[in-house]
Automatic annotation (TrEMBL):
Predominant location: membrane
Keyword Transmembrane helix: yes
Origin superkingdom: Eukaryota
Protein name (record): Like-glycosyltransferase
Organism ancestry: Eukaryota, Metazoa, Chordata, Craniata, Vertebrata
UniProt subcellular location: Membrane
Membrane topology: Single-pass type II membrane protein
Keywords: Glycoprotein, Membrane, Signal-anchor, Transferase, Transmembrane, Transmembrane helix
Amino acid sequence: FGCPSEADVNSENLQKQLSELDEDDLCYEFRRERFTVHRTHLYFLHYEYEPASDNTDVTLVAQLSMDRLQMLEAICKHWEGPISLALYLSDAEAQQFLRYAQGSEVLMSRHNVAYHIVYKEGQFYPVNLLRNVAMKHVGTPYMFLSDIDFLPMYGLYEYLRKSVIQLDLANTKKAMIVPAFETLRYRLSFPKSKAELLSMLDMGTLFTFRYHVWTKGHAPTNFAKWRTATTPYRVEWEADFEPYVVVRRDCPEYDRRFVGFGWNKVAHIMELDAQEYEFIVLPNAYMIHMPHAPSFDITKFRSNKQYRICLKTLKEEFQQDMSRRYGFAALKYLTAENN
């Protein structure tokens, strides 16, 4: 029913931006996605949490869809701190999720996990919009920007809170990097210590994350140095770097133009670098990626040439926006790309 309502400036702007898009543009569907408004149900289940009074508290931030639901209990067992999740679901799936959560002792015993449902709309997975929704509703001074298919090491929550003080995150612009590893085994006895993790690396039960397919994404973390590091060390930004980081709550949002697969985290890290964040690797932190079937979007990216062309176009436009926003400092992103 059309109910008469006050003209909303935001929706008028939206309409204007939408009407300026060229429908004949081969990447029209991608561009349109940025302006799609999703129904959102914040705090879908009961949430109750008082951040620690010492101002070191950290919330784990992630997003997911129905096919990654089974990761939730495992993450809750590995991370006792607060969690902010954005779930991309249809109305029917939201009901399924409700039944799933209510039937899980692990999830029901936790009141410090915030579930925000973003209802499905459009044909792409709005990965960065979901991350922004989860980030916006973080109630602690710091957040650990993670992904749902990673298990943090046991005790990471406490370790990060200590590192926040040690590295004076409150008064400096830093992004603390949690080194990422992966296993190809569905049943993994999770390493209880860095020493155990290193021996699993040597045995080939674990690898540095994306080592086989996309080394550039995590190469600057400098895993060779991490093996023997006992103190945090600084690393420099390089092209395609996409580490998992702990930052203050006031860090920039993710860029919504990146949907589905590709460049969604790279663009965010690039913006942190443009804003002169220092990247500091934590010597005793790690997280492990658990194996799963490939997502619908990566399959689309691999099989559809137009998808790859549009991603490249969006990437170039993002870099131009960066040079407009950050001026001379952002030139290095264009040259890094060309090299």
